[in-house]
């Protein structure tokens, strides 16, 4: 579970970093058709002064599920297009 102060740019950057680390996001089938296909929830046990500010981006957290990407696919992505063509 992760909360972002500004998910409009922080979430894409976070997901890009996870991809670079060899992890790909997995979506739950039951959330297909929801807003972005991810499970979002209000952050529990927030401090009283945080609640005074109302609904802010940091007041929501998202559950992100990742799994290790296929190593062969990762190696292909690291190679230049010329290297890939030469292997075929």
Report on this model:
The chain is of the alpha+beta class. 39% of the residues lie in helices and 20% in strands. The chain has four helices and five strands; from the N terminus they run βαββαββαα. The chain has helices spanning 7-20, 48-52, 71-78, 81-87; strands at residues 2-3, 23-26, 39-42, 60-63, 65-68. The strands form two sheets. It has a three-stranded antiparallel β-sheet, with no helix packed on it. The longest helix is centred in the N-terminal third of the chain and has 14 residues, at 7-20.
Judged by helices, strands and strand pairing, the structural class is alpha+beta
Q: What is the total tally of β strands? A: 5
Number of helices: 4
Which regions have little confidence, pLDDT < 50, spanning 5+ residues?
none
Give the ordered list of helices and strands. Answer: EHEEHEEHH
Rounded average pLDDT? 77
**Residue share in helices?**
25-40%
Briefly, what is this?
The protein has 88 residues and is of the alpha+beta class. Helices cover 39% and strands 20% of the residues.
Question: What's the topology here?
Answer:
Blueprint: E1 2-3, H1 7-20, E2 23-26, E3 39-42, H2 48-52, E4 60-63, E5 65-68, H3 71-78, H4 81-87
Antiparallel strand pairs: 1-4, 2-5, 3-4
Short key terms for the protein model shown above:
88 residues, alpha+beta, 20% strand, globular
């Amino acid at each position: 579970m992760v909360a972002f102060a500004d998910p409009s740019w922080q979430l894409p950057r976070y997901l890009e970093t996870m991809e670079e680390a060899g992890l790909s996001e997995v979506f739950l089938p039951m959330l297909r058709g929801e807003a972005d296909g991810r499970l979002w929830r209000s952050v529990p046990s927030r401090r009283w002064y945080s609640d005074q500010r109302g609904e802010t981006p940091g007041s929501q957290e998202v559950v992100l599920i990742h799994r290790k990407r296929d190593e062969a696919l990762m190696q292909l992505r690291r190679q230049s297009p010329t290297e890939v063509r030469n292997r075929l």
